[in-house]
Amino acid sequence: MTSQAPVWFITAASSGFGKYMAFEALKRGHIVVASARSTSRIQDLKEAGADVVTLDVTSPLPDLQKIAKQVHEKYGRLTHLVNAAGYILIGAVEETSPQEDFETFNTNVFGMLNVSKAFLPYLRATSGEKTLTNFGSIGSWTGGEGFGLYSGTKWACSGISEAMRRELAPFNIQVTVVEPGYFRTGFLNAGAQVSSKTRLQAYDESAVGTMRKLLEVTDNKQRGDIVKGCKILIDILTHSGVAEGKDIPERVALGSDSPPTIRDKMARTETLLKELGYRRFPLAVISP
Q1: Mean per-residue pLDDT for 49-70?
Q2: Which of 20, 75, 122, 150 is labelled catalytic?
Q3: Helix residue ranges per DSSP H, the chain
Q4: What ranges do the domains of the chain cover?
Q5: Is the entire prediction scored with pTM above 0.85?
Q6: Which of 31, 155, 228, 257 is the most exposed place for a label (fewest CB within 10 A)?
Q7: Rounded CA gap, 2 and 97, in Å?
Q8: Structural fold of domain 7-256
Q9: Mean pLDDT of 144-148
Q10: How far apart, in whole angstroms, are the C-alpha atoms of residue 221 and residue 218?
């Protein structure tokens, strides 16, 4: 490890993409500051060489800024910020409570925003190319029965990331949003997912009820290999391996099930535009 090794700050490093991105960066001799709500959950990363810190993405911005300042004072620079925190709230939109709705957005969206706000001054101050990685989802492209609130947060992450990409380009900060399909991350296990406290019988035999059952049997049977996926992500973010000589894309559709979902959404959108513009509502397309 050299004094100019890349420096990563990764949230939610206790599981999923955060954990395995951290391990992959460490394997490459990079400096990794891994964070979690409890450092007891990331002792394996500490043993592998990571610097570990306690961070809850829902903490007030001043608390996050204090941690960001401490990281910068210790390492003097920051080259990669990864916002990996997030969870799925399962339930029909009618079933989820205002508090459950807020908590989902607070972690998945506001947490990403505030961590970014805290660390961006140090990303901007670092010379050379830097990256900021946010996590959307296959759910960024389609709203599905039983996880509408989750999809809403991921649409927000993807939209905000597109805006940040344009805003931060002048500072040589490459922003990308990862939109994974189904990976074996523990994301769907009973301890990670949250179900609405209210369960309306009216939805039991609907697509919402079917989705609840499907997610239960899908856990740990997802097609995506998290280790291989994270290796590809680190390649993309460092222009190495399979991404050598390639630009960092605006969106990363990761996993074999993600591109088909996106293509289907694009096809349906194109059909909708044709219907709106030329058949049902001619005035929906305004002439110049």
Answers
A1: 99
A2: 150
A3: 16-27, 43-47, 61-75, 98-105, 111-125, 148-168, 207-218, 226-238, 258-278
A4: 7-256, 257-288
A5: yes
A6: 228
A7: 50
A8: Rossmann fold (3.40.50)
A9: 88
A10: 5
